[in-house]
Write a structure and sequence with these properties.
single chain, alpha/beta, 5-stranded mixed beta sheet, 3-stranded antiparallel beta sheet
Length: about 280
C-alpha cells in the first residue's frame, strides 16, 4: 500500500462506479482516458484489491468496488457540495422498458419527480436490463418484471399481475376463439403465453397461424396495432391505445408483475424510501 491516498483516483473510480465509461469519466474530470486507467490502477494498488473489471469496452465495478463505492460516495458528495455548492449532478437514473415507460410511467412522471426531490430523475428506457452491462450504483432505480429478485435488492410491486390479449380495433369481434383462428398470433420470446391462452379458450394449436416473432411488448403492441395479428402482452403496457382492443385478461404465471427495484444498501436514502412507499400505494 502506498503512503498517500490518491484522492483524484478515488474521484475517478466514483465516476466509473456511477456508470460512466472511461471516456465519460475523462471528460467530466478534464483528463485523458489513459489517465482514468492510471488512476484506477493507482487506487487498486493503494488498496490491494481489484475494484473494476473490463466487460467488452466498459469498465464495471467488482463486488469489492461496489462495496467501496457505497461507503465513500456520501463523503465524496459532501466534499463536492463544499467545494462546488449547487453544481454537483443530483440525478437518479430510472430504468424501464420502453412499453412500460410509455403506458404507465410517463403519465406519473410528475409524481415520481416530486418524490425524488432534491434529485432530478433521468428516465432511461431499454429492453435489456442495465445490470447486464454494468453493476448497480446508488443512482439506479429500476422497474423490473418478475416475481422474485436477488437478496441484495429491495423490490416493491407497482401494478397488479396481468396478461392481456390485444388486437387491432378493425379486427375486433365478440368471438375471441374465432378471432384466434382467423388472425396470426404474434410471438414474443420470454412471454410465450400462447399454449395457456389456446387451452383456456379451447382453441386447437393446429387451427392457428403464427405471425411475426418480436422482441418485447413495445414491438408486440405496435405489430398488433398495425394489424399484423393478435398479441399477448403484460396488461399494464397496453395503456390508452385507441387502435387496440383488449380481448381477454388473466393473471400472470406466478403472479409476476412489474416492481420498483433498488439496492437494499440504499434503502435509507429519503427519495428511495418515498418511492417505495408510493409504489405500495399503487397496487
Amino acid at each position: 500500500m502506498t503512503s498517500r491516498l490518491p484522492f483524484d483516483a478515488l474521484r475517478t473510480f466514483a465516476e466509473i462506479a456511477r456508470g460512466a465509461s472511461a471516456a465519460e469519466a475523462a471528460e467530466r474530470l478534464n483528463v485523458t482516458p489513459g489517465a482514468v486507467s492510471q488512476r484506477i490502477a493507482a487506487l487498486e494498488a493503494h488498496l490491494g484489491r481489484r475494484l473494476v473489471t473490463r466487460r467488452g469496452r466498459k469498465l464495471v465495478p467488482t463486488s469489492d468496488g461496489l462495496a467501496l463505492h457505497v461507503r465513500v460516495r456520501p463523503h465524496l458528495d459532501a466534499i463536492e457540495d463544499v467545494l462546488t455548492p449547487g453544481q454537483r449532478d443530483r440525478a437518479l437514473r430510472l430504468h424501464a422498458t420502453p412499453a412500460f415507460a410509455d403506458a404507465w410511467l410517463m403519465p406519473r412522471m410528475n409524481t415520481i419527480r416530486a418524490l425524488a426531490e432534491p434529485f432530478a430523475v433521468d428516465l432511461v428506457t431499454a429492453a435489456t436490463p442495465f445490470e447486464e452491462t454494468r453493476g448497480w450504483t446508488a443512482s439506479d432505480i429500476a422497474i423490473r418484471y418478475g416475481a422474485s429478485f436477488g437478496d441484495d435488492l429491495m423490490a416493491t410491486p407497482l401494478v397488479p399481475s396481468g396478461i392481456a390479449l390485444v388486437v387491432a380495433t378493425a379486427h375486433a369481434t365478440e368471438n375471441t376463439a374465432a378471432l384466434l383462428r382467423s388472425q396470426p398470433l404474434i410471438r414474443q420470446p420470454g412471454l410465450d403465453e400462447w399454449p395457456v391462452w389456446l387451452e383456456a379458450l379451447t382453441v386447437s394449436p393446429e387451427s392457428v397461424a403464427w405471425g411475426p416473432r418480436v422482441s418485447d411488448d413495445a414491438a408486440s403492441l405496435r405489430a398488433a396495432e398495425l394489424g399484423h395479428g393478435i398479441a399477448s402482452v403484460r396488461a399494464c403496457n397496453v395503456g390508452d391505445r385507441p387502435g387496440l382492443r383488449v380481448l381477454a385478461r388473466r393473471t400472470a404465471p406466478g403472479n409476476a408483475t412489474y416492481h420498483l427495484v433498488t439496492r437494499r444498501a440504499d434503502r435509507g436514502a429519503t427519495p428511495v424510501t418515498r418511492l417505495h412507499d408510493w409504489a405500495r400505494s399503487c397496487t
